[in-house]
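Q: Is it fine to ask for two folds in a single conversation?
A: Yes, each is treated on its own. Send the first.
Q: Here.
A: Result:
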Amino acid sequence: MPESEPRPMKTSCTARVVPATTAVIPISPAARWRAFWVCVSVAAITILDMTKVNVALPSIGEVLDAGSTELQLIVSGFVLTFGLVLVPMGRLGDQRSRRTLFVVGLSLYTVTSVVCALAPTAAVLLVGRLLQGVAAGIQMPQVLGMAQELFQGKERARAFGLFGATIGIATAFGPTIGGLLIALGGPTDGWRLIFWMNVPLCLAAIGLALWLLPDTRTRSQRPVQLDPIGVLLFGASIVSLMWPFLFTTGAPTDNPARWWLLVAFALFVSAFIAWERRYARRGRNPLIPLGLFRISSYRNGTLLQTAYFTAAPAMFLTTTLFLQIGLGLEPVYAGMVSIGFALASAVTSWVGGNLVSTHGRVVVVWGLAGVLVSVIGLVLAALYTDPAWTPYIAAAVMTLGGAGGGLVIAPNQALTLGDIPVKQGGLAGSVGQLGQRVGAAVGTAVALSLFYATIYRESGTHDSLVVYQDAYAFGMLSVGIFLSLAFIVAIVDLTARRARGRDVSGEEPRVP
């Protein structure tokens, strides 16, 4: 099928954005699905690596003599560099070859995984993780950009459902796999197997990408437009926002002066918005077309997924730490508690991807309600059940959370990108991914700081188990707050859609 021309989209600050008609890449259905599964495998490798490292933090801290700040940076530093390059690479993928960027990102990810596996010190491991984040930021925007071009209509909703199922499995199985690798490799070097595991997976993905991914661009003589000043202002905004949270550990030694960087963040964001508007008025292509956020489905969906991903990773990490440190569970068993979440989310992501085309935003609302109930259940299980039974009850509650989570990620992704022009799919998807990554870093920092601050405050005054129960409750309080924000956004979006009389599939009325 020949690719139709997208309708133009204005990007000035005063113009309305006109959603373009989407199109598919002119290849056979079988070839499209093969390419899609390559994209999904790349995303799964990245997400799996993020979550399986969490369970290794106690081992890394003991073996490499890393303090709480270094351990925090090993997790959040990855997210920082990931977020810094997401949007520029999404923009570059929209203008040039996504397949080339896939291969470049995967190759760098392979090399940096070897660096992390061989790291003799915490400093070397941190550098490796920062570079891993860069590699992930190169490859990840191409995943959603490619999926946006490969499919349209109900087939796209189905694809996003399968994508969400795979990501849900990778997210929740990560701690289990990490714990198993630590058990196999032993307490000293088991955590290194977590990084060695990436090498064969990345090499296989590189081969499949070269073989199966289609070219989505013809050779162009036009120069790449990356808006360099916009890139610098954008980078400064991200660093100044995330830096205070990256150095928030909950320890009494945390420097309160770090919060002044949030003032710098406000200034950088203001300068970035002003520059992008000026750049667009001059007829150039800004780094982030601000007009995208005039599309209500994209704006609300992006806000929702940012709030959700501010909560979800913190929920997994805080639960894993409580089970390991508070209840003394072995890493592999602590990780297994989230298996139910993985399996349930895999099923409901596929179901949700099909339901969203007929029921719309209400699917996401019910999913968020399920996750909120599970957070309450996890806290109650930690506080009021026999410690011997707590992991089993937590696993059952996690299954409920997974059922809800699967109805959030994939349907929301379909609704968020449903009105975005195909040729901006990589950029639009990378902005959403940025919200997820920044949210994950901020949410993890907030939850961990509350968790450790409670331990520092109550140690010596209460029984050890009570201290960790209180720490877990305070950490999960932040998770509940961010999930509530996502729920509110979902309700607002649902109400607005019904008021406009939109069809349930989420299609925005076309502007002539």
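Q: Second one now.
A: Result:
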Amino acid sequence: MQCLLRALGATPALVLAMSASAQTADKASLYPAAAAGDGATTGGYNLSRWAEDWRALCDPAKRTDPIDALKCVKLTPSGDVYVTFSGEARLRVNHTTNPNLRDSPAQRQDIVRLVGGADVHVGEHLRVYAEVAHGGISGRELGAPAATLRNDIAVQQLFVEAKGRVGAVDVGARYGRQEFVDGPNLMVSQRDNNTIRYTVNGLRAWARTETMRVDAFDLKPTQYGDLGTEDDVIDPARRFSGVTLGFVVPKGWFGGAKLYVDPFFWRRRNKVGAWGGRVGPATRYYLGTHVFGEAGRVTIDWTVNHQWGTFRDQKIDAWHLLFAQNVRLGTSAAAPRLGFHADYASGGGGYGDGKLRNAYAPFGNNIYYSYGLFLTPSNLITVAPTFSVSPTPRLRLSAAVQRAWRANVHDAVYRASGAPFAGTQNVRDARIGDVLQLQAIWTLSPRLSVTGRYEHLAAGPSLTRAGYTSSDFLAGWISFRF
């Protein structure tokens, strides 16, 4: 294992630290898994497949079909060394009218995602996870598809992890290429909407007790090519590092509520930052808090953070205020939910000489605002009532009507890539537009699901006066996971 760590580029000190931390541990993790920063696990499955725990299926008596056997393939007679195989096949069709919000022929994307992973466990304390992916795309009016949509084969993840227990503290470290989702979804996400997911390279380490945690990381993004594995490299221009804390709110404070508070301090460096047609080095710091969880029938996800630093010769002074909440209209878990989200992302200075007040998410989940990728939390104010219901245990319907404005009319409207809609910085009307969102998810089984999505973006004056127009987005996809 130490040889493998060195092959992946770990320093000798890291090798020794990870090996030492693996000497004492317990099967059960101390900190609640739902808030440990690895994403949500539902029905045994997680978007990040390494976050799944299939140890129970090492007992053949608990398997219900042949696929279950792939979750624990023993490599030693004792079963201390075993491998968990995982995979996904997703077929998807996107239809977008007026792509890029220009009056132009509709775009159709026929997309294929194939993913295969192997999680090798060496006892309770060491593991190696490897995952490869293929992205295929065809259709019409495609332009030049990004490497996250078209890629013959990519090493999507490859890391080694060691974990253990020191007294009453779980400690661990993960080194290599990995998905990172430890933070608010609108700020950090593996971006499942892509065919090839967003991954980063480097070190993440943690220490956790039953009621608090600390996670530290130093990561660089993967820069994908569109051919084979050899052109998927570590991006030399960008670096993301920081510390996130986590605290479990005592249940007695709010009548048994499951609430968590995560303060964070991050730094993002980019040698080729771009605002207002200017390119230059940028260093941005984030200091904020993420509060989330359930209190009775109410679910909340709130984030406040201040951003500062420099872009070229400009000082950065920006804010994110992100609030999502809903209430369950009944006692059962399947009862309808009614809620709203209200978000503020400051703007201004992208085309000026004063302070740069445009908020910026490191690599957030932009489909939250628009599957057409027409909006991002920079110079943006949104308010959206939301509703979801499950008329049957396997069908989930949801709807939202989102109204959007610019926070600063002297700056542009920005799309998901962070690029501006050219010319919008010269329009002095705040209204961006409205987005109607409808979605249906039919879960035939934990492994198989079918999703349909429709959106209509009704362009407002900020867009139409700069020559942009409205758009419809319609998509359907089927996903099989094992």
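Q: Anything structural to flag on that second result?
A: Two points. Residues 1-26 have pLDDT under 50 and may be disordered. The helical segments are 2-7, 12-21, 461-464.
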